[in-house]
Records
---
Amino acid sequence: MLASAQGPMDDRHGALVPIFSWDKTTRLSPMGIISPRGTMVEERDNMAAHLARRFLYMLLMLLMASVVSFTIISLPPGDYLTSYINRLKAEGGDVGEEIALALRRQYGLDSPIYVQYFKWMGKLVRGDMGRSFLYDRPVSEVIGARMGMTVLVSTATLIITYLIAVPIGVYSAIRQYSIGDYIFTVFGFGGVSVPSFLVALVLMVFAYRTFGVSIGGLLSLEYVDAPWAWPKVQDFLRHLPIPLLVIGLSGTAYLVRVMRATLLDELNKPYVQTARAKGLKESSLLLKYPIRVALNPIASTIGWALPAIFSGQIIVAVVLDLPTLGPVLYKALMQQDMFLASSTIMVTTALTFVGTLISDILLLWLDPRIRYA
Amino acid sequence: MDVRQLITRRRFLTVSASAAVALLAACQQPTVVEKIVTETVEVAKEVEKIVKETVVVEKEKVVEVAGVSTRQAPMLQERVKAGELPPLEERLPLEPLVVHPYGEIGEYGGTIRVGSDGTGLYGGDSDLYAQPQNMLRIKPDLTGAVPNVLKAWEMSDDFTEITCFMREGMKWSDGEPLTVDDVMFWYEDILLNEELNPVVPQWFRPGGEPMLCEKLDDYTFKLKFAIPTPSFVMINMAHKYGFWSRTFEPAHYLKQYHIKHNPEADDLAKDAGFDFWHQYFGNRSDPNQNIDRPNLRAMIPVKDTPEMVFLERNPYFWMVDPEGNQLPYIDKMVHNRVGDRSMLDAKVVGGQYDFCGFNTSIENYSTYADAAEQGNYQILLWKSGKGSDVMYQFNLNWNMEEGVPTSEQKPDMWREVFSDVRFRRAMSLAINRDEINEVIYFGHATPGQMTVIPASQSFKPEYAEAWADYDPDQANALLDEIGLKWDEDHKHRLWPDGTPIKIAWDIYESETPKAPITELVVEYWMNVGIEVPYKSITRDLLTQKILANEEPISLWHGDETTDVLFMSRPKFFAPIDGDEGCFGVLWGRWYNTQGEGGVEPPQEIKDLYDWLDKYLETRELEWTHKTLESQAENIWSIGTVGNAPHPLIFSNDLGNLTEDGYWVWDSLWTWPVFPEQWYFKQG
């Protein structure tokens, strides 16, 4: 089958929705972008310039983000020491001004805020994220210890979200106003609007009452230190569904809505009708053209998943007591642990930038309209 | 002090000893039973001067299996057999502390599960099972001290010297001996080191001079004070004031991080990512952060993960039961760190903790009770040990200028009303304490004025009854008398300038049910025409506002009202310079800075400080009574209900518990009841 034979892909028809040609000779290559117009080299040069420019902007943005986050964290009255002393007091102690002074000195909080910022920045560019007051250990260690679980939970959620959302969205679009569509619509609006921490609480109580799954965490207390043998894996798998369901819920519901809406837009476009008129089988037609186009919004948001994978869902993680990075960031912010909070935010910000960049590249790769714009 | 205490103490020992004997008889084993001689010597010269307890465990017939004493946990027997540990006799001090269990001789084994929202190795309830070990311990009735790490102490007749006797042969958790050198290291190289302690904390400089610490021999040291300091025993030795749970520091371990003993300490610190040696030293010496630091607790941390700390019994623990079995009975502890405090309640209800007290609240009692069966736990109600669970103070320093004596301050409308004793009495009379008791505490607390707890030696019923009836008519009459007129709708009373009385203030919620009680109090006060809308804010913010004298009203829970800490510092009965009350922050500052800062108070308030100082120097009840009379007369603090119950959660499998405890900072919560003798009933 020749590319030119398939109307919408042919530039000469001026169609707005060009699709890559799918015959074997011009298959899309991950190494570069092959287009009927430019050469690969030309494209790559453009791309490199574009990327370099983006990278520079990113650095600038990061610098700004660092100042903003550091300033905002130190804006509330007091500093980590005020929080710390108050915590000591909450446990009943009496900490006088003198002790506070000595502590402030020991923690290096006696210098003005900009000095603290430059100290932290100086270390950060050398890859040292500073020391967490709260955990009294290097920030990298605090983050590192929680990275495994965080990435595991977030990635699993992400995959499940896409696996569920995309088929449902497609179904809802092609069977618009069917009973199934209504059911999923109700589910979708519910998922978007009900706060996920509430769902978390309800599910947790339900799981405890019915299945005896211990409340909170990803493992029962007795398995936390056990080697990863079968019983521990079982215990882990028993705990996993709730976080996956809860964290995935709003994302899934949202994606279903997006998928349905964009696909509905595409379904009525002339190229679909043309393809249908040419006698293409409905299922392969859908898969080959409109669905692929409808994936655009999803590709453009995939980059956001990166920071989310890193920090996890904060409130849900707190409610479910997950050993991920979310609760750490929450605590750091509450107690003004500046270096931990700022460094975590910096990493999240950096990942957001990288994620956006990835999204853009993905879009360029997916959609020539953007490439030529 | 009096004979009553001694009798109580003797009876306590006798009763528990006979219980132990009865138990021994009940479970007579065919094997040899160790012979124990317990000899309690108490010299009632002048009480609190000498309390000496000598216990000799005769080792003539040590119970042994294959050469290993069975008076220790099986897990330790294994390690002794394998040659990893020296035998029990070498690990215990010559005179171990003998603890008489509340119920029976326990069984070894089990893991106690606790949780906290902290980030350290110990925290919340884990700290309360494996308590940091102070020199002395607080008596269960909170009226005195008993030996702990020190086997005895002796206060000189003029209250300026305390001789302390340590236990020979006592060891750190790494097996190194604990001697006076550890105390001297703390005194010379930590307390007096200017880099670690720029200023000696006031607890260690009574009369303005840093106290002296002198080594007499390897196991005896002497503390000397510039002025009589009888209060040091209770406040700093039995309680942890000033020491911050760091009463003893392991010199053998910490010297390597100290610049005086290791000139390369700064390099060590830089390698570890710190700027100065004193920062690294602070980290290394903190038992809460450094897993390698030897300590004296019952449980020592062995593994630290983000969500869990694993602790194991300290093989060198220096307490035994009356049969000579080494404590603790429990083998291990897991300390579960949760992301948020509210998670702890959920996990309690899910039966995931064997012990929880630090974050439980009486408001959730019925929730705990509903889930008790499925969660396999019981709820014990301890006394809150607070003169008043929530008490209110009006700011008598409102709108004052710092540095100007009280008598020369510019007049202020609000301050004049707050300072009028009739106003404070009216506010107290307007509160329906019985209703608070019924609504919040199911009738289990005691309505009354803010004062000391009934178990205190200074307690008198009239202090608790002063202006504590519910009498809105009298309250209205008093307010009319002051001249606070009603507005036209008879809703608000009016300030002298004709504006409606509406006083906005802030609270911080913790420990006791502050918001629910305040909700009621706001309503009661509204009924007599005084509107006091409040907002709940963070403690950080509240601290700032109170210290800046920006709160017209404040509240707190009335702790430091037991004989342990009552009048150990200005707090609710003499104005404090802190965030726990706004009765007279600027006066408190004047007192704290010896007259350099703050506002010079009137004679009436100076008297309060004077009595406090005198009590600290003499410990004579004359001064506590004067103070309490002043409170009953002037209602500096307006109390609501006191002696309230606090719910504690214990697994049904735990034994040797008591219902007779005080859950309060004064008692250090579980400190008087020896949690080391809790045990898991097997099978």
Note: Chain A touches chain B through 53 residues (CB under 8 Å).
---
Amino acid sequence: MNKKALSEDHWSILVVEDHPATRRLLEMRLRKAGYRVISAGDGREALEHLEHGFCPLVLTDWMMPEMDGLTLCRAIRERTWENYIYVIFLTARDSLDDVVQGLEAGADDYLTKPVHPTELMARLQTGRRLLELERTLKERNREIARLAITDPLTGSYNRRYLSDHLPGEIRRALRYGRPLGLIMCDLDHFKCVNDVHGHGVGDLVLQQFAAWLQSYIRAGVDWRARYGGEEFVLVLPETDLSGCHMVAERLRRLVSTKQW
Amino acid sequence: MAEIFNRQALLQRVDGDEELLENLLDIFLDHTPKQLLDIRWALETGDAVQVEGQAHSLKGAAASINAESLMAAARQVELAGKNCALEGAWALVENLDQEFKRLKEVVGG
């Protein structure tokens, strides 16, 4: 039997099979290969399991009481899950019609009994490869989304984020009659810094400035966005004009007194 | 002529795990009497779908534990259910019961 080691994060698999002996055999084989196995005796039980705890792999029989494999497969495809569920049929039903029906119902693969354990493991591996691909894509999407709203130099939100979110903050403040503070900061003589010391130093100055801004505002409540080259906007919910004035003055004093 | 039970083949199937083999046999011998009753009841009530379904399940499990002749008998009953040929199925179910008895003797259950 092919005992290709699974990666550290153990893969869960839901085995759906009505006969207890067959189910046991499958459970043991899969556990031995490193899978975390959950089992169900019919389609209905399987769906319940999936609803309570997501499982990316499903190995199911076709003919079962209560709800058969075909109905289960369709039910899985009808709903939305947090991630893709890879479904493999493992059944004695082996006509061409059966295979086509199974695949059309949404199964990713179709195996007929008796299946050689090595083949079963290999096909599960194929499923894992697809799921890994999904994982990678989702990770990349998250990264792209993050990049789209972040200023790469300072880690602040960027102007796009500001134009997307500031209107909402304003609307909220107006609706509930709450104060909303906005501070527009700009570094004086910044152009000189770039001209005299070079852009590398200029970048460091901006990073330092942005970091100070971050430390002066309330985490998780206030936020900062880079508006332009050396311009930053601070958004301070629940802060009135005098509050803003205090923060702004503190910042101004800090920047003017610090040795760079 | 189909074999009643091939212990060696089953042992190989479970990678030499004697404990698992015994476990599987226990489960099977435990579960089958009820399944046979269900098949009889389905036949009584003319439920061809149930006859087919239960016999199919038994067939599959018998195959998993290398009980070939029981598997063959179950296949016969499954076909009867599938084809809705229930009148002739009683003899087949008798045969199925017999095969199970034989298996129990051989396994020592």
Note: Chain B has five helices and no strands.
